[in-house]
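User: Okay, second chain of the day. Same drill as before: sequence in, structure tokens out.
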Amino acid sequence: MAEGAIAKTLESTTLYGWDISAYSNDQTSAFSHCTAGMPYKSGIYLVFSIDGNFNWSMSFANSAWQLTPGSRYPITYQIDNFSQFAAEAVAITPQLASVRLTNSSALFELFRKGWLLKVRAAGNEFRFSLDNSSKALTAALNCAQRYVLAASQRGSSNPFVAPGAGQHNQPTNTAQLEAEAAAVTANLLASSGIPEFRLAETISPELNIFHAVWWAKDVMGGTIIADNETIDSAVTTLLAYASAGCKGNFASMKLPSNEANAVRLKTVCEESDKNPFVQYTNLIKRKKGGVYAFMIFESSGQENRNNILEDAGARLFEAGIQLAK
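Assistant: Same drill. Structure tokens below.
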């Protein structure tokens, strides 16, 4: 983790040996940064971090170090046989030092495509294999883009709640809906066969339109209970909301289904200089009235991520149909 003790894990997965994680700020609960980290036999843990402003850094952690927090150390680093870069490492904790990297797409690509990172400090040279760094850094960038896009599209507004009548004005009802959403979502994920899923203990402000948030390998999702909606009204509301939040090209489609009590939606938002934001939404009729909206997003940098996301959406839809019966 690149930002010391101020962060709390929002989600975490492993991709080709790299740990891909998202963190919030403990003081504000807002999204802080996404990371791609790898442990090495030397005892050093290498971490690349990308924050909500898309600033990025490279950090080194070792439990055996005794650094003085705030101290600065001149270093150089080199990728393969390209030119050396001079930089400064700052001790964040006694075991962690961080290096701010230039906001350069060329440098980012150099790290993605490189095979070996050589870091020289205090007369020592440390070597780090960059095997699969292309997938890892892409995943970390996608992770940051997803949280930033979620914040810009959704803010703290629930699409099913009228402005000025927010869910936070009804804490008792919200707590009941969150408890129900957590139980229903856990049962749905277990029935779908999606492995290694986890429910978020806390929900960051960027995602607080949801009553429950979860993640599993390569995907994450959120659940909203719209207790005053029908399937048809929920479709109209969600598509209008997603379209209004997209600052680029927006496309949507209703996926084929013969179910009267359930609907599958797919939306895509394409903004310049960002990866497309793809979302699947399963709307399931709630027995006690209203609708469950189960939304699924991609959270990895894998090349077949669209297939992974579509498969997860289909699995959850089939499980949701059984829930509606």
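Confidence is low (pLDDT under 50) at residues 1-5, 165-169.

User: Thanks, on to the next one.
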